[in-house]
Specification:
about 325 residues, alpha/beta, Rossmann fold, six-stranded mixed beta sheet, globular
């Protein structure tokens, strides 16, 4: 995958996805003491960046492949993206989801017309894929696929087109597809741009892989940031993060919720914990920025139900009383 693949993806998916806006935030700039803009990818189709990769994958499949249908594994945004893109393009989709997936994701995925099959956990869901591949369905992997990554990388092109003065980008990591695609795009356009990544404790597959020097499988995802909950990263995404990223910051669930509240009150949008963590990381990385910094935070998704948000708030009280 290179910048040409990402540019081709941008043209291919253009009729099907939104070009989300990038906007300077006075509230975040004052809080951080750094010129800060936000890429509002939570306003993407299905509420997250994942539609970019899903459409790119399905649009590059042959008619014969699409006729046999697709299968995907996801506890959140990838599920909805594959379901939605399949519905738009007339492809039958089966989505395997862990049993603990928030109901808002399950209902939304079914609402887009996909067949949802619940599995005991994410590991069992990945194992079940083999049966559907044997039937001829194409597996649409959530991150370990260069076509998917090229689609996600279109976020990077848009950022640099709308704000060519950008010096630093912070984004969150699940399996690493967004991180890999965006950095290939951004570094190709501006080799001097600095990339920073963030995860939550309990959904930190990339940090663990970096520490081990190899892909590590997590026993369980314990963070509330379920959309960061890849059980492992891939060799490809690990290599891209090792090569191009300044660091991967790990934050707590409570810190993510506090950032969600601030963003909700000041920017007037409800993000996922997986998106709000970029603000937490920016605060922890503050000493790396100065008056010349032009920082962009990628708010990658906003699929948080009201009941989910209410259930997160006690984490703040626990943190304050600890």
């Amino acid at each position: 995958m290179d910048i040409n693949d990402i540019k081709s993806a941008a043209e291919r998916i253009k009729p099907y996805v939104r070009r989300t806006h990038l906007e300077y935030s006075n509230s975040l700039s004052k809080r951080l003491g750094v010129h800060t803009s936000v890429k509002f990818e939570l306003f993407q189709k299905t509420g997250a960046f994942k539609a970019r990769g899903a459409f790119n994958k399905l649009l590059t499949m042959s008619d014969a492949e699409r006729a046999k249908g697709v299968v995907a594994v996801s506890g959140g945004n990838h599920a909805q993206a594959v379901a939605y893109s399949s519905n738009v393009l007339g492809v039958d989709a089966v989505i395997l989801m862990p049993a603990n997936t928030p109901q808002v994701y399950v209902e939304a995925t079914r609402g887009y017309g996909a067949t949802v099959e619940l599995q005991p956990n994410i590991g069992a869901a990945f194992e079940r894929i083999k049966d559907y591949e044997a039937e001829g369905r194409v597996f649409v992997h959530p991150f370990d696929d260069e076509v998917i990554m090229a689609g996600q990388g279109t976020v990077g092109i848009e950022i640099l087109e709308d704000a060519p003065e950008t010096t630093d980008i912070i984004l969150s990591i699940g399996g690493g597809g967004l991180a890999g695609g965006v950095t290939v795009a951004a570094k190709s356009i501006n080799p001097n741009i600095r990339m920073w990544a963030v995860e939550t404790a309990g959904a930190d597959a990339m940090s663990r892989a970096i520490a081990a020097g190899k892909v590590v499988e997590m026993d369980a995802i314990t963070s509330i940031a379920k959309t960061l909950g890849a059980p492992y990263v891939s060799e490809l995404t690990l290599s891209l993060v090792q090569k191009y990223y300044e660091s991967v910051t790990v934050v707590t669930d409570a810190e993510a919720v506090e950032a969600m509240v601030f963003i909700g009150e000041r920017l007037k949008v409800i993000t996922e914990p997986a998106a709000a963590v970029t603000l937490v990381a920016a605060e922890k990385l503050r000493e790396n920025f100065d008056e010349n910094t032009r920082l962009v935070l990628v708010l990658c998704g906003g699929n948080t139900g009201v009941s989910d948000l209410c259930s997160y708030l006690p984490l703040l009280e626990s943190e304050r009383s600890a």
